[in-house]
Amino acid sequence: MNESVWLRPAKPERRPLTLAQIVGEAVALLDEEGADRLTMRRLAERLGTGSTTLYWHVKTKDDVLDLALDSIFGEVPPPAGGSWRERVAALVSGWRAALLRHPWSTGLLDRPMMGPNALSRTELLYATLAEAGFTGPDLPAAAFSLSTYVTGSATAQARDQAAAGPAVHAHLRERRDTYPTLAAHGLDHDWDATFTRGLEYLLDGMAARVTAPS
Amino acid sequence: MNESVWLRPAKPERRPLTLAQIVGEAVALLDEEGADRLTMRRLAERLGTGSTTLYWHVKTKDDVLDLALDSIFGEVPPPAGGSWRERVAALVSGWRAALLRHPWSTGLLDRPMMGPNALSRTELLYATLAEAGFTGPDLPAAAFSLSTYVTGSATAQARDQAAAGPAVHAHLRERRDTYPTLAAHGLDHDWDATFTRGLEYLLDGMAARVTAPS
DNA sequence: ACCTGAACACCGTTCAAGT
DNA sequence: ACCTGAACACCGTTCAAGT
User: Fold this and answer.
1) Which residues contact B162 (CB under 8 A, 6 or more apart)?
2) CB neighbours (10 Å) of residue B166?
3) pTM, full prediction
4) Which residues have CB under 8 Å from A123's CB, separation 6+?
5) What is the C-alpha to C-alpha distance for residues B5 and B198, in angstroms, rounded to an integer?
6) Which of B144, B160, B180 is facing A198, going by the closest CB pair?
């Protein structure tokens, strides 16, 4: 004779785990605790499963990282309008903002970025530049230098802001004899202003190529 | 009664392990096998010791990585002479070459670079630009955009070259409808030429700032 | 189709102990 | 001062087994 339903422990709520849930939770975990705390076991725990369950949805941990990285590229808004320069600047700034919102992402930029969100933003950049008149080797060069500038600068900023502190200042001040220029000007700059100014150098140099007669 | 010296196994050659040896062997290991194969145990094995021995010379594995990264900055030659533009271009190209010679290094650029070799090259960059006439916010902006361009482009190149292959081409060709510009122009470019052209954009834009009357 | 548990082959790091 | 071995608390991943 079986016990009544009410006395049996309710079956543990069988909503099936999805890949989107895994990626979403991975991003949350990375945001809250950082990259070195992302563990298959810890991630699974947050999702209420065992770690080995994840391997049905995902081949390796690297898959999780790649998916998490691509998902944050999804936050980059497509530029609204304006001149090609304005559209490029908007795209690139949104790109940078997304990376800086998730500082762990800059530590993953050494792995292939073939996800749909990354590719669609890259396509947008290429298309905008092609429309602006960049042709031949100038097109990949312009696209490459811009995307490189964004990822490089975000990496540098995330890195230096994480390390920032009195220890760093002291270290450089003590060595101001060997690094005089750096000690005098290398600290305490406005990250946004510096980024924007550097971007202007780049865009100025690029603009001369499209507008100038070859 | 003791056996003669000759019959006893020779004491295992007690040359003390140095930090320089550890770093050198770490770089060799990274060059030969890549970053994910660098293990304290494997590194120790190559040095003929136990893994725990390393912890007398080094606090953590991250120390080894930081030291290895800084050591390759030591390969960057100081620029010989010429105009500030030529000196900057030489410094930056040497920097890039060192990173590309050790592709694993681009995966470590998200960690603080406070080592003597990194700092001395950064100082060199700042000093050259200051001498060239960059002042106020233009000095950190110029230095930042250049170093950012180098590290970003090397990261992108190391990443894409490692991933390069027919699979990537096929993936993009299959999706040429959604990424038309990218599929048409994003593959098979000359890395060196692209880098140099992008650097010219940047230097052109920068040069306008120093030479032009404000 | 999806989830679980046990198990394997590793890790980085600590620490008491040796010379 | 420098090195060793055993041990701890983890890892990513596989796989047979369950539903």
Assistant:
1) A112, B103
2) 8
3) 0.92
4) B178, B179, B180, B181, B182
5) 68
6) B144
pLDDT tens sequence across B20-71: 999 999 999 999 999 999 999 999 999 999 999 999 999 999 999 999 999 9
Q: What is the dihedral of CA B192, B193, B199, B204, to 10 degrees?
A: 160
- Whether the CB-CB separation of A108 and A69 falls below 8 Å is answered with yes
Amino acid at A84: W
- How many residues would you count in chain A? 214
Q: Name the DSSP class of B8.
A: S
Residue that the structure tokens 């090609």 belong to: A84
Task: Check if the beta carbon of residue A31 is closer than 8 Å to that of residue A43.
Answer: no
A61-73 helix and A40-47 helix, angle to the nearest 10 degrees? 70
Rounded to an integer, what distance in angstroms lies between the CA atom of residue B151 and that of residue B33? 22
Please tell me which of the candidates B126, B172, B194 has its beta carbon nearest to residue A181. B126
Using CA atoms, how far residue B153 sits from A193, B34, B35, B90, in Å, is: 22, 20, 19, 16
- Produce one character per residue of A171-183: b if its CB has 16 or more CB atoms within 10 Å, e if not: ebeebeeebebbb
Nucleotide D9 C1' to residue B174 CA (A): 47
Token couple for B165? 């292959």
| Cβ pair A58, A19 in contact under 8 A | yes
Q: By the CB < 8 Å criterion, does A155 face chain B?
A: yes
Domains of chain B: 5-72 (1.10.10.60), 78-211 (1.10.357.10)
Split at pLDDT 50, 70, 90, the class of B193 is: very high
What φ, ψ does residue A178 adopt, rounded to 5°?
-90, -25
Question: What confidence tens digit (pLDDT) does each residue in A58-68 have?
Answer: 999 999 999 99
Interchain pair A194, B140: CB under 8 A: yes
Q: Are B158 and A111 in contact (CB under 8 A)?
A: no
**Token pair belonging to B68:** 């290895």
